[in-house]
């Protein structure tokens, strides 16, 4: 049996700096991932071939980053029944608003889970992919719970510090 992984597709290499946030999240949980540059418009055959191959090799979900017309996530969702997460990139004259609408407005039956524009979305795409994998991986689910508990403690500790700094505690 193949090792489960997440496939990350980017419409352009200019998406790479933003998508580093996705890579960091997946690495932090020990999740294997692959990265490819494929365009829904410029390399449709290569995109199709990669998606079908990845699905056959154990891909659990696809994360697709694209800007402007942002059809990559929808094109991938049309090929596979695996979950697809779309990350709208924040470039272009509309600062990612066009990418957001292109990614989120999918026809019924071809879903794309869409996250926020840019780096925050890239980070959340990693977390969402981890949560998808955690449905069938109790160890990964516990890692996610543990991280949330650590984050909670950081916030509570910082709250106490701020209260002391302001002389309110």
Give a description of the structure.
The chain has 169 residues and is α/β, with parallel strands linked by helices. Helix content is 51%, strand content 15%. The protein is built from 6 helices and 5 strands; from the N terminus they run E-H-E-H-E-H-E-H-E-H-H. It has helices at 16-28, 44-56, 72-79, 97-104, 119-134, 138-165, and strands spanning 5-10, 33-37, 59-66, 84-88, 113-114. The chain has a 5-stranded parallel β-sheet, with helices on both faces. Helix 1 runs parallel beside helix 5 and helix 5 (119-134) crosses helix 6. The longest helix has 28 residues, at 138-165.
End-to-end separation in angstroms reads 57 Å
Give me the side-by-side strand order of the main sheet: 2-1-3-4-5
Report the biggest beta sheet as strand number plus sense, adding barrel if it closes. 5 strands, parallel
**How many extended strands?**
5
Q: What global shape is seen?
A: globular
Helix content: 40-55%
Fraction of residues in β-strands:
15-25%
Point out poorly predicted stretches: none
Question: In terms of structural class, how would the helical and strand content be classed?
Answer: alpha/beta
Q: What order do the helices and strands follow? A: EHEHEHEHEHH
Mean pLDDT: 96
User: How much is the radius of gyration in Å?
Assistant: 18 Å
